[in-house]
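Exercise 7b. Backbone tokens:
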């Protein structure tokens, strides 16, 4: 797999979010993402642990983006603005 293909796959918004992440509210997911970043920046994880953290971080970021997009749609609907 090329680097570009790996990047496209990792950030694909259509990729399903794991159930444990999907159950989180926005603030919970954001806080979990902050913790993942802290652990990655600490640099003490093994390669395998780092990859798992990265994948979890990507899923948390997608989940946060979904929450924010939904909030934007709700605001637009209330304000009568088109999508």
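Sequence design result:
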């Amino acid at each position: 797999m090329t680097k570009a293909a790996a990047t496209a796959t990792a950030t694909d918004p259509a990729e399903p979010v794991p159930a444990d992440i999907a159950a989180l509210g926005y603030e919970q997911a954001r806080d979990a993402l902050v913790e993942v970043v802290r652990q990655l920046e600490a640099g003490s994880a093994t390669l395998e642990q780092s990859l798992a953290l990265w994948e979890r971080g990507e899923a948390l970021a997608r989940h946060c983006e979904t929450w924010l997009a939904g909030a934007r749609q709700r605001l637009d609907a209330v304000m009568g603005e088109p999508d």
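Instructor comment: Confidence is low (pLDDT under 50) at residues 1-10. The radius of gyration is 15 Å.
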